[in-house]
Amino acid sequence: MRDGKLRWQTPLSQAFPPGFSTDNGWAFYRFPGRKVYAGSVYGNPDGAEGGARTRNLGTTVAAAGLSEDTGAVLWRDTGSTIGCFGTLDVAANPDDPDSPILPVRCRATGTATYHPDSRSNTFADLNITVEGFDSSTGKTTWTVAAGSAEALAGADVRPAVAGTTQVLVVTGSGPQVIDLANGGHRPPLAGEVFWCLADHEFDYHEPYPGGPGQPPIYPRQGGQLATACDTAGKPVTSALPAGAATAAVGANAGHVTVIATGDTFTAYTTR
Q: Which of 72, 188, 234, 269 is most buried when burial is the number of CB atoms within 10 A of its CB?
């Protein structure tokens, strides 16, 4: 849409494999510098509606890039999810509230099973690679092996924030700080402190309808709460994360960054 007019329409089937549908989940992002919309759509998981459902992470995920001007499909990539199931949708410029995300995706094998009773996921045979990509062509620009990093596949715990574009990922071989701007990575420094983020929910007075045989759903997704933490995700009170990490997590106003921590808002001087 532009200026109240429909400029183009592209059938989902032109960009994604047969059977893939937004009914199974989707995430799209705009990359204005390249005039590209790029995102992921998913295939059908196994299992009955309302019960545990298992997704093959190698065959039921796909990504594609579309021209912002014409809607033409510029590239397709079966087997990857842009933003890594919403866990690495990191702003290229945290000072700009309208900043595009960094072009990062995950490629995985193994399975993820969603359990509606606990609203949580379990994983089997998980092996993940984090990739940078060119949003215009879909070509991979860098890779980092992340092994069985459940935090990149939809687990409840998100990767901790280590800097402006850096995150802490607990890989199969131990924790690594990964720079999502260029793929650089290193072990954490001794005593290094991060911001651990947790999704916050609240109950809304109007529910979503539940699945077949399921009760109505009142919880809604809110923002994220931050806690200063170590490499194991345990709270730290004796030190603070680096100023760049604080600025990346909070709301910035001049030299002050405000972060939601538990039941309070805390302001930090970051510059």
A: 188
Phi, psi of 260 (to 5 degrees): -85, 115
pTM: 0.89
Dump pLDDT digits (tens) for 137-167: 999 999 999 999 999 997 777 899 999 999 9
Judged by average pLDDT, the poorest of 31-45, 50-64, 204-218 is 204-218
Does the CA dihedral 45-75-86-125 come out positive or negative?
positive
Among the listed residues 136, 132, 188, the one whose alpha carbon sits nearest the alpha carbon of residue 160: 188
Asked if residues 13 and 21 have their Cβ atoms less than 8 Å apart, the reply is: no
Q: What number is the average pLDDT over the span 234-245? A: 93
Taking only the tens place, the pLDDT of each residue in 83-95 is 998 899 898 887 7
In whole angstroms, what is the distance from residue 149 CA to residue 172 CA? 6
Helices (H) and strands (E) in the chain, counts: 2, 18
- The 3-class SS string of 124-159 reads EEEEEEEEEECCCCCCEEEEEEEECCHHHCCCCCCC
Beta-bridge partner residues of 80: 107
CA angle 264, 267, 269 (to 5 degrees): 160
DSSP string, 184-237: -EEPPPTT--EEEEEEEEEEEEEEEPPSTT---EEEEEEEEEEEEE-TTS-B--
Residue 124 to residue 250: CA distance in whole angstroms? 34
Q: Which amino acid is residue 113, in one-letter code? A: T
Structural Rg of the chain based on CA atoms: 19
